[in-house]
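As agreed, record copied across for absentees:
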Amino acid sequence: MRVSGKTIVVTGGGNGIGRELVLGLLSRGARVAAIDISDAGLAETATLAGDAASRLTTHRLDITDRSAVEALPEAVIAAHGAIDGLINCAGIIQPFVKFNDLDYAAIERVLNVNLWGVLHMTKTILPHLLKRPEAHVLNVSSMGGFVPVPGQTIYGASKAAVKLFTEGLYAECVGTGVGVTVAFPGAIATDISKNSGVGPSREEATSAADAPKFKMTEPSEAARIMIEAIESNAFRVTIGSDSSMMDKLARFSPKRAADTIQKQMASLLAD
């Protein structure tokens, strides 16, 4: 589905990949309804949109609140006339601890945002997409959705659930005008740790001893790949050399993939 002239709802539009998706879609002529829990983040996105902000609406929304989500389509359709696409990008990580040390509040928070948020949005928006001549859903899973990352076990479980949900949705939408894509980003240069409330910002981490020692994909590049996946009606897309490499390894030898990640992350979980 070409995005020009289409109205796309994007969750997580106030920062990171979600913001770059909003800006990238606008640059290609789309109309966008940006969703985020942060008013300040949405305002900054609107400022960055410049003249294209005339095709942008912002909506402060907690995607874990089903009733609030169910009220969204009316507002979007009133502003844009229709809904042609949905990108579920909003997500958080868990505190970097082993499952045994993770409290139930943290578990529920991750599952509520990463899984229930996707379900709420898709269940609410899909009936509108099915009425359109063509439409698209892209759900953001993660490299952690197909290889286990110690210290992110619940995050990984939530993203694995998004993967299978999206693949099932694809199968159910065959024969309709709705295309479905699942995206698997690897390490992306965003402030997801800070925005998840579990760690420092990327700038703070860069000056710390635990700064990443590997190349990260820029969020603008991740957004470009996702938008092109929508336009080519891709079934799945990996983002970043790390995600592409681990995707191949996980298919060939799941245990070897798990052992590789465990060795890389072991120092972060040292007792």
